[in-house]
Design goal:
binds zinc ion; alpha/beta; 7 strands; 4-stranded parallel sheet; 3-stranded antiparallel sheet
Length: about 170
């Protein structure tokens, strides 16, 4: 199975939390509730995506599937790391954790912050990212610190953060 340089994923219905964490790692992750197994298999094939599932029967239907056994996200990330070595290890502001849309850095020349961004955050020089699809906003804060701690427990200490934004 030839993987694209950056793996893409489709998560089954039971793996919504994992889908959000993988998006925080910067990955393109399809996740939608209510899809039939046929549809999940088709999407993973046509989108060249690894199908992540906790369903053994579904996993047997395609060679692109990765069967995960753990019930919680840290265990699932560890299992995935064994199957897909070289996973990203830290938070990247590339994908919206809610909808998988691409993020872009908010334009600081506009005086008013994007919806959902506090004034003091907007006044600070740190970047704010906005989802091109749903408008959700992201920045380095308590929430990302918690997610980074989770990744550190799974993958070990993170490399020093890059100073650049997303491409
Ligand atoms: Zn979004």
């Amino acid at each position: 199975m030839a993987l694209p340089t950056e793996p893409r994923f489709t998560c089954d219905e039971m793996l919504g939390r994992l889908a959000r964490y993988l998006r925080f790692l910067g990955y393109d992750v399809e996740y939608e509730q209510g899809l039939r197994d046929d549809e999940l298999v088709r999407r993973s094939r046509e989108g060249d995506r690894l199908l992540l599932t906790r369903d053994r029967i579904l996993a047997q239907r395609t060679r692109r599937a990765v069967l995960l056994r753990s019930l919680e996200v840290e265990g699932q990330l560890k299992e995935l790391q064994r199957e897909v070595p070289g996973l990203n290890r830290g938070v990247r502001f590339v994908r919206c954790s809610l909808c998988n849309g691409l993020l872009h850095e908010a334009d600081r020349s506009t005086p008013k912050p994007p919806k959902g961004v506090p004034e003091d955050r907007w006044a600070s020089p740190d970047p704010v990212f906005v989802c091109r699809s749903c408008g959700q906003t992201y920045w380095e804060g308590d929430h990302t610190r918690e997610i980074r701690r989770t990744f550190a427990r799974v993958f070990g200490p993170e490399d020093p953060p890059a100073q650049d934004g997303p491409p």
